[in-house]
């Protein structure tokens, strides 16, 4: 074996580099950066063909703002900086504070949300309607499962 055999070929180095980039989310980062740059150009452009790309986001309901704050906290906690920056370009009025001070708070909320989803999936539509009717004070009708003729 000659000394030249111990040195990896450029193709091998390129392939190893590519694998490391893929494993560490490099493609996702580059795509997010591309979207942020595109959003930035569209929001600052006066070109007519870009008008339909310009953001026009208006939220005034508190539930929607709370959902937006959660999404922003989730992005920040998971170091999705480019996506968060894109969101701020598209919606400059986005809240600056999310109400979540630690990553564990975001994770706990995520777990609670997933548990709520699992619980709701187990309920039938009939049960959901009955529960909702009880909550708002409507009379609850008992339905039999057998069709009447």
Main sheet, how many strands, which sense, barrel? none
Over all CA atoms, what is the radius of gyration? 25 Å
Low-confidence region ranges: none
Whole-number total of structural domains: 1
Q: Helical residue percent?
A: 55-70%
Helix and strand content put the structural class at: mainly alpha
Q: Strand portion, in percent? A: under 5%
Shape: extended
The number of E-state strands comes to: 0
Gap between N and C termini: 89 Å
Based on the structure, what is the oligomeric state of the protein chains? single chain
Number of helices: 7
Query: What is the string of helix and strand elements?
Result: HHHHHHH
* Mean model confidence by pLDDT: 81
Organism: Trichomonas vaginalis (strain ATCC PRA-98 / G3)
Protein name: LisH domain-containing protein
What's this model, at a glance?
This protein is mainly α.
Structural account:
The chain is mainly alpha-helical and 149 residues long. It has one domain (9-124). Helix content is 64%, strand content 0%. The chain has 7 helices and no strands. It has helices spanning 3-6, 10-23, 26-44, 62-77, 81-90, 103-122, 125-136. The model has no long low-confidence stretch (mean pLDDT 81). This is LisH domain-containing protein.
Present the secondary structure layout.
Layout: H1 3-6, H2 10-23, H3 26-44, H4 62-77, H5 81-90, H6 103-122, H7 125-136
Helix pairs in contact: 3-5
Protein name: LisH domain-containing protein
